[in-house]
Amino acid sequence: ESACKKILQKPLIPICTFKRKAVLMEITIKHVFAINPAAANFTCEFEVNMAWLDAKAKQMPSGTKLDKEKCKKLGLPKLSVQNAQSCTMKFESGRIIDGQSGHVACKLKIKAQVLMTFDLRYFPWDEQSLFVVMVLNSQEDAHRYLVLKNCVSVDSVKAGEWAELGSFAKSYETGGNSKALFGLQIKRFSRYYVTSLASLCLWSTFILFVYVLAVNDFRERGKIMVGVLLVQNVAKVAVSSKMPRVVRITAYDNMALNSLGLLFSIGICNALLDGLGQMKIPGLTFEVLTIVDRCLGLVLFSTWLLSNAYVIFDVAKHSSEGKAVKAGNLPRQVAAIVPPDYTEPEEVLEEVAIIMRSPDPLSVDSAVRKTCSRSSELLGEQVQVKVGVKFWLISDIDVASATYLAKFHVIMEWFDQAAVGVPVSTRISYEKLRDEAGRDGTIVVPQVGLKNAITVSLEEYSDVIVLEDQKGLVTCRVHFNANLHNEFCLESFPFDCQRLLAELHLVNTGFELVPNFCNAGDQLKSLDGWNFTTAALAQPDDDIAANRQRVLVNVILERQSGFFVKQVLSIYWFLTTLMFSFFVLRSDDFTKRLVDILKIVLTQTTFRFSVEHRLPKVQVWTPFDVYLISCQILCCFIAAAYLASFIMSQGEENACLTQEVERLFLLSLASLWVVWNLGFIIYAIHRKRQERIYSQQSIMGALEMSRFSGLLPRYSKSPFTVKRKGGGSGSDGEEDMSPVFSHRGTGVEAFTGTSNQETQVISIAFRIWLIRNVDLVKATFECKFRVFLEWLDEAAVGLEKGKKAKELKVPSLAITNAVQAEVLDRSSAPEVVNPATGHVAVQMLFRATLRMDQQVRHFPFDCQWLAVTVSLKEEGCAQNRSFVFQYCEVDEGLSLDEWYLCPDPAFSTLTKQDAPSIQDTVMCGLLIRRASRYYVVNIMLMLGLISSIAFAIYTVNVSLFWERAEVFLGIFPLIVIFKMSAQGKLPRVGYSTKFDRFATACQTLFLVIVMGCMAASFIPNVPTWFRPCNSTEGPVAFAGEALLAEVEHICCYVLISMWLAWIVWFTWQARQAQRLDPVENMQSRVPVKLQGRQHAPQGSCEASVEGLAPSLSIVAQEEKKRTKRPSLLVALGIVEDKEKHEKQG
Predict the structure, then answer these.
(1) From the CB of residue 281, how many other CB atoms can be counted at a distance below 10 Å?
(2) What is the DSSP annotation of 214-240?
(3) Which of 31, 147, 242, 590 sits between 20 and 30 A of 167, alpha carbons compared?
(4) Nearest-10 Cα torsion for 701, 705, 708, 714
(5) With 0-12 CB in 10 A as exposed, 13-18 as middle and 19+ as buried, what is 1008?
(6) What is the dihedral of CA 121, 123, 127, 133, to 10 degrees?
């Protein structure tokens, strides 16, 4: 204890005796995304501009550009993110602002996955504080103090569920370390959760209907309580997949528990009162128990209302954080971290004042020289760059996170003086041009970026190709693979059209962008759940009057609403319409009516659970939501009508009035329901048409704006003129070199054509070692494979055999269908196989997660192609290159659960004109056939049997409607639940599969039987139900009951025959699908061939060679002599042909 006291008496942190130095900071928050309450983190991208004073900088002139190493010598602060799980920091630029005072500034780009503490007490009305803590924890920076000047954020939150309220920032010091804290205050859009919570509370109030029944009728009351309990639990489970998983109790949980408490409290009180009534205690008469029962119910209901009101009041009391942030204060959660009333030292403020003397103390961009076009320097104006876009892939359209994944090419075409006189079709390496930037005679390539990109996984520039040698017309292609932020407007869901936006902007100066073309139709025809409408390029309104540095890429998609209309809304319509059938029951059968309504509500809620993963969380009310709410409102109206009829039927003198009122209820509600559905259909058609027209007008308006805003090429001004050969001076001796864009460069023709140069053929072979985790829901699989490349290189002629020729360049490959890929092993350099011919070889081992182009129209009797797609890059190569496919070997031990492997690998070769990558491409992989037994036996057979049970309804007498209703109300939830249990194993595509057709047939059979039985049971009750009110006779007997039963039996036999015939036909179709050739079954969009069928039998010399350029080199010519699997080594006589040797032996 004495030792501890001595330690505590000493200062934990040494007292600083040196002068404090200021580091002025400005934060610009670019993107905040991937907000994950479960993992308690989010991802933030931001820029940091810093300025400080250093004595060494006084010896340098103002405006001097600094790189990272020079900034380190001048005392670059070592910033780190204190609350980051992972962080990447990139130095952008730096410069000397003022050489006299030693004022230095730099700019950093930081991307960090930041830990945070979610406060979900008030979910779904919660506000969260996302903050980042920057710290100087290096000993070298112990004398420095961070001064946070400003934090800028404009629409930085890229998440569809959150809205940005404001930003906050504060610098402070704790534990001897200077820190800067900044962040955003965000608020959740609560409409989706509030709607589900309101439904939960609504169904909970149905428990109050028990007080209509007698206090001693616990058996009937118990049926209602059980029904309400089931509906309440399923309603909460239905939205549980979209709820945050937290430990503490939220406001949502409090209100849900209040509803559950109301249910159990009423149930316990009813049980106690029923027990007291059976004990026959003196004084506890039926009337006394009834009064106690009603009083307890009133108290419990009032307690439930007050509890929910308190939760709402507590939420409203703590929902003012956004106002505090806008007023310049810190949120309460953040204010607890920052020491109160802390101010910067005076010596630090003095240095800040010195730094602030400069007009722009933190800017490093104004003095940094950016590469300009030489043509623009001659003209004194911007050089126009014609921009075209060709889409390759659009996928992962995620409305919740407001993002989508896109792969596309940007084709640029412009004039450059340095290209004059260069032969047409000459390819110049982009890497070489980048290294030689700034030198005379070097082509300057426009640099483009994606402004709305969250992450860019690939940004690759192709070689620059000369299109015209006289005018210096050149072209270049940029390949982007990026995850882009996009604002989705879902006010018309599911009849909406969406605009996917990609915003291109220029990075270097001296250029201006001119929209040219946008090609997306060929590659976007297979979007799951969407139909491609149109695509176009346009410039934003605010950029037309400026320097035209941006171009908007617009892709209009129309949602395929058939699934939501046929598979969701139609089911809700049927189940809601079914409630009218219970008017057939007697008015005093209130319990039966209410329990059946609760069964239908339970079925609706369970069905909603089965399709919840397909429904977006929308911030506003949509037509889809309105229709579902209308179904719930009608349910409440019908329940209220049943209650009113039951109360009025208690006295015999009110029988006539009860009949008239109930008839009025039925006709009014049924008419209202019919008119509402007709109006909704008309509205949906109109809304769909309006969405199409609006999307087309928005695109056409942007195009017209671009056309009449001076964005077309300026033909009147020439960047330079060229003397004609032998021409004199003056206008007669000059040739106009106006920048007229050639037809050859328009689009992608410049990159898909073949020049007059000799084509180098690259032979490619595969060996697949491992395939696993075939996921049809995500359409991906994992693969480990080796690639063998062989080619003839003139530079390898005469080299030593077996030598690793490091001076030779290896052809560059791209795994174009890879989600992620890594090279596990590769040859250190090409190996010389034959010095006489220059034959070299190289190999690479890859491990990748690949995207599969799944076609599941025949599911579960389908075949899939697990293909590796490899494209050959021509960047940095002075000659044309082309692929020749040799063979694909598969490891003998390879096997897959649920799949049968086809013995022959499949392949396809695509030319530049056909391949989405605009590069020679080879696709090779395994064909697999699904083992359909699981789906047939465990899902389809059971689904068919459950649906066939509906025929049991015909065994019940036609006049016993309620007994029939009990049968089909028990079967339909079973169908929904069973289909939902298999949902995780079914592919999610935008078209119908054979399984979908079978499930739809089962559902149709059930609906036809139910509707027919409803009509048959309603007919015998018509005479009694519509008899005159003053009639004193009893129930009117239906004379045609025997005939009706006979007709129903005939219908039953017809339906059974049709059902069995359809089963036989479907079985035959499934059998035919299984017997299909794997290539035909797969229905691929590219021509697929099996490896074993492509070469003639041994002895034939007419065997075809599969390749993109089979007659362009000696390699392909020698390949024609092979009859089986072609081998370049044997063809060139380097390796002995074992088959020929064995035959001769």
Answers:
(1) 11
(2) -TT-HHHHHHHHHHHHHHHHHHHHHTG
(3) 242
(4) -130
(5) middle
(6) 60
Torsion angle in degrees (nearest 10) through CA of 111, 114, 120, 121: -130
Tokens of 1011: 């509707």
Amino acid at 105: A
Identify the pLDDT of residue 140. Answer: 84
Longest dimension (CA), the chain: 132
Catalogue the E-assigned strands of 724-838: 734-735, 759-775, 780-792, 813-815, 818-826, 831-834
CA neighbor of 712 nearest in space, from 386, 1108, 452: 386
CA pair distance 1090, 887, nearest whole angstrom: 10
d(CA 607, CA 623): 19
Closest CA to 607 of 637, 639, 564: 564
Whether 84 and 56 have beta carbons less than 8 Å apart is answered as no
Label each residue of 527-542 as H, E or C. CCCEEEEEEEEECCHH
HSE on the CB side for 362, CA within 13 Å? 18
| Secondary element (H or E) of residue 20 | none
Q: How many CB atoms lie within 10 A of CB 113?
A: 17
Gyration radius of the chain's alpha carbons: 38
Q: What are 225's two structure tokens?
A: 């309580």
> Is the dihedral angle over the CA atoms 1126, 1127, 1133, 1137 positive or is it negative?
negative
Peptide bond into 540 cis (omega under 30): no
pLDDT tens per residue, range 1085-1104:
788 888 876 543 333 233 33
- Tally of CB atoms within 10 A around 1101: 9
Amino acid found at 122: Y
DSSP 299-329: HHHHHHHHHHHHHHHHHHHT--HHHHHHTTP
- Residue 1006 structure tokens: 């059930």
Q: Are 269 and 210 in contact (CB under 8 A)?
A: no
Sign of the four-CA dihedral 848, 854, 856, 861: negative
pLDDT of residue 174: 82
Token pair 């070298």: residue: 140
For the CA atoms of 676, 682, 685, 689, what is the dihedral angle to 10 degrees? -130
Please write the tens of the pLDDT for every residue from 529-569.
Answer: 788 888 888 887 665 555 678 899 989 898 888 878 888 89
Looking at residue 1083, the DSSP 8-state letter turns out to be T
